[in-house]
């Protein structure tokens, strides 16, 4: 069944099984997005993901189908993150000092080390850059969809993706010569 079919079943019959299927499809991407946004705080990411799906259940009647369901759902998740970030000092700090990030040179030990360094480097990005990169590069949203989710102009998303990628490239430059075995 398509997302649209499931949504119709939820709205017309309050079919909890259909909604459970939507949750199953999008739970991992939404949780991963929120984990990145919370700089790896998986407990908070789980709480925000749960609240995202509760709000989606309550507000599903407001979904108009103008965008993909995933775009609408990531929009709810982004709003949940923003609400918490306004209250939490550790999430409000948008960017670690550039000099600290530059000092963190990657060790060229293994692919798993590269993954760890990428995760740490993503945490250093400004939250708007991190959100744009995670939505577009990890979750496959278009720039237009990410702009809708983040409630900002298309040009801002494009700029944030570009700047974020440039920073990541600079911070992870020690891996440029790394060859896979």
Compact overview of the structure:
This protein has about 180 residues and is mostly helical.
Report the CATH C-level class of the largest domain.
Answer: Mainly Alpha
Helix content: over 70%
Radius of gyration: 18 Å
Mean pLDDT: 86
Count of DSSP H/I helices: 10
Provide the CATH topology of the largest domain: Rna Polymerase Sigma Factor, Chain: A
Give the strand content: under 5%
Q: What is the CATH architecture descriptor of the largest domain?
A: Orthogonal Bundle
What does this protein look like?
This protein folds into two domains: 3-91, Rna Polymerase Sigma Factor, Chain: A, CATH 1.10.1740.10; 96-175, Orthogonal Bundle (Arc Repressor Mutant, subunit A), CATH 1.10.10. By secondary structure, the protein is an all-alpha fold. It contains ten helices and no strands. The model is unreliable at 95-108 (pLDDT under 50). The protein is globular, with a radius of gyration of 18 Å. α1 (3-13) packs across α2, α2 packs antiparallel against α3 (42-59) and α8 crosses α10.
């Amino acid at each position: 069944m398509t997302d649209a079919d499931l949504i119709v079943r939820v709205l017309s019959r309050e079919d909890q099984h259909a909604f459970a299927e939507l949750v199953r499809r999008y739970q991992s991407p939404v949780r991963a997005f929120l984990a990145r946004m919370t700089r790896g705080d998986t407990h908070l990411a789980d709480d925000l993901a749960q609240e995202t799906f509760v709000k989606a259940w309550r507000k599903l009647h407001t979904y108009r189908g103008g965008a993909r369901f995933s775009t609408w759902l990531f929009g709810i998740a982004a709003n949940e993150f923003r609400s918490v970030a306004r209250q939490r000092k550790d999430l409000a700090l948008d960017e670690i000092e550039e000099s600290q990030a530059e000092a963190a040179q990657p060790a060229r030990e293994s692919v798993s080390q590269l993954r760890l360094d990428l995760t740490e480097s993503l945490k250093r990005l400004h939250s708007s850059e991190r959100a744009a990169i995670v939505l577009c590069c990890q979750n496959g949203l278009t720039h237009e969809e990410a702009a809708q989710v983040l409630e900002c102009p298309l040009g801002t998303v494009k700029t944030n993706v570009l700047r974020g990628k440039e920073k990541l490239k600079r911070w992870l430059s020690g891996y440029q010569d790394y060859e896979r075995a």
